[in-house]
Amino acid sequence: MSANHDQQMYYDFDLLSKLVVGIGEVADITGVPTRKIRYWEDKGIVRSVQEADGSTRRYDYLNIKKIVLVQELLEDGYTLDAAARKVEDRMKNINDIFQKIADKQNTPQP
C-alpha cells in the first residue's frame, strides 16, 4: 500500500475514535427509531456516551455499529436477545483478532 493510503487509513481510525453522534442523527442514519435505541440502551445492548446530565443521548462508533448489526439481525428473524448475543460475540471475535495482530506486530522478530 502507498504511504498516502496508509496515512488516509490513520485519519479514518482517528476520526472514528472521536465520532460521537446524537440519538436523533443515529436514528436518521440507521433507520432505527429513537424509541427503539433507548429501549436497547435500557436493556444494556448499547450505551450512550455520558456527558452532562439531561443532555441528549449520544453514541460513539462502536455503539452505532452495534445498532446497525442488531437491526440487521432482527430483520433476518432473530429475537432481540439472540441478536444482542450474536453481535457481542462478533464484536469480541473481531477484537480478539485485532489484539492478536497488534501483539504479533509488537513482538520483536529475530
From TrEMBL:
Keywords: DNA-binding, Repressor, Transcription, Transcription regulation
Listed transmembrane segments: none
Entry keyword annotation includes Transcription regulation: yes
Pfam family, one: MerR_1
PROSITE patterns noted in UniProt: HTH_MERR_2
HTH merR-type domain mapped to chain residues: 23-89
Gene3D superfamilies reported in the protein's UniProt record: 1.10.1660.10
InterPro entries (alphabetical): DNA-bd_dom_put_sf, MerR-type_HTH_dom, MerR_fam
Highest rank taxon of the organism: Bacteria
Protein's recorded name: MerR family transcriptional regulator
